[in-house]
Amino acid sequence: MFVGATGEAANIASARWLQAHHGDRIAVRGNNTHSVRELVAAGAGLSIFPCFVGDSDPRLVRVAQPIPELETDQWIVTHHEERHAPPVRKVADRITALMRAHQPLFRGETPIR
Fold first, then answer.
1. Cβ burial, residue 51 (10 Å; 0-12/13-18/19+)
2. Which of 1, 24, 67, 90 falls 20 to 30 Å from 98 in CA-CA distance?
3. Can you give the pTM of this predicted structure?
4. What is the distance between the alpha carbons of residues 43 and 40, in angstroms, rounded to a whole number?
5. pLDDT tens digit string along 14-23?
6. Nearest-angstrom CA–CA distance, 103 and 113
């Protein structure tokens, strides 16, 4: 059985994919991504999370490879006039460094346990 999402959380890509492919097997739904994760961690069923969410939560175990249709690029976007301002640049640089340091996690390269 699966744990799905309802309300605004049902509009995210992973929730739409789950509904399209396993909608008839969704047994319970959470009204936000946090409640879906907590339901899965409590044993209510399976669901779909970004790799960096699922793989970093020790309560969860990945049971399948990443879903190619759900892969996305991540962009750091700033206002053109503010992009060189020291505080904005510092935050952008730190986010970039964090994502580079954890590339395997963000790419879903953590092995299935």
1. buried
2. 67
3. 0.81
4. 5
5. 999 999 999 9
6. 18
